[in-house]
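Appendix B, Record 12. Input sequence as logged:
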Amino acid sequence: MNYKDYYKILGVNKSATAEDIKKAYRELAKKYHPDKFPNDTVAERRFKDINEAYDLLSDPQKRAQYDLLGNRFSQFGEQSYTQNPFEGFSGNFKDIFGEGFSDFFNNLVNRFGGGSNASFANKPREVEVSLSLDEVANGAQRLIQSGQNSIRIRVKPGVAHGHELTGTGPQGEKFLLKIRVDEHPVLKRKGDHLYADLKVDLYTLVFGGKVEFKRFDDVFSLNIAPQTQCGKSLRLNGKGLPNYDNPQKIGDLYLQIQALLPFPLSEKEKQLFEELRKLKNA
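Logged structural output:
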């Protein structure tokens, strides 16, 4: 194993705080995610290095050992992992990894081979998975770096921000998977329901008509009744998010109507609006 400068890979200096490292990792993981570079082996290698660097530098014990050994870390830093740390694994990852969760362990068993003399720290290895709201709605896959292996995991639809799952191996090794859901620029989530503002132009509010609203990749056509008031809420049944424990149960989408005023107004339009105001106050 060749020495890698993990600080350089994440673009941080050796005095970087844990928060600095986490922030750098998030930005790079999004930038080089395999979904953005299909069949690009260079980008995939870069993504693996980023995950490998975060895996080590986010662990205080591993980081201290790495800083101490320097370029000798490649010779000594992973000696405790020469045996099979997953033999007889008893953790339950199925609800987050889906039916293919066993690949996570099979890949590692093939990597390390048999044996049971590995030593592990009591602190769980933390892995943060960032998801968009779109991925929460449809489920997602991620590559998790473990040593020289890249393991693909599946995240079920409907998972919540802050969701955590743990697993424990036979020698006491612990894993903690943390879910982070990024904010959406339009949609807000409350449980399985989604909420958003629906901007409707003034003339459609007065005379009625059709407007469109885009939710992820779906576009909905909505009828607006004449003289609809601002603040009115429209409910679209079953257009929210799947329930994590029961994917067949789907929340609703609530749209609150907001007036989109004409701008800028021509002098003629201003005169007409002034006439309307006079008629209304007459």
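The first helix runs from residue 6 to 10.
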